[in-house]
Please model this.
Amino acid sequence: MKYWLMKTEPGCFSIDDLAALPKQTTSWDGVRNFQARNFMRDEMRVGDLVLFYHSVTAPGVVGIARVEREAYPDHTAFDPDDAHYDPRSTPDKPLWVMVDVRFVEKFCAPVSLRAMRGIKGLEGMELLRRGSRLSVMPVTEAEFRIVRDLGR
DNA sequence: GCCAACGTTGGC
DNA sequence: GCCAACGTTGGC
Model:
């Protein structure tokens, strides 16, 4: 089993939005970065756990989700009216993929990006690298546990 | 709102 | 294949 961190802008889609869905499950569409796509397509498996990260406003990890369905074509790329439309991607040859994730828990206290920078054991996190912009990235089990324990 | 860092595009 | 220009991300 692997561990991940996935970013979202809460103004667009927050952990509360996820928890409020009937099945508490959503398709993680709109990823348009090859490195992030490759992680989803090649390495993400059902049951993997995800640190749910809010960016922009109060950046930090706010909870945990779980992968419910492995990569399948991101149909929003086919839709000219969609903000993430990409004409290079077609139903025959989909370029972009998405996974489904399910709500697991919301932290009592969000683990802010600022706080994470000072925590021993998190120094190696991709998220903390200067200029890190990846929206889907792997984390180690140790990092996952540290962040989870801080949030609970 | 600013701007550093980064990925992507496209001319050559 | 190089690299400048550009657009985007995202912290602050």
Notes: The CA atoms of residues 24 and 103 of chain A lie 5 Å apart.
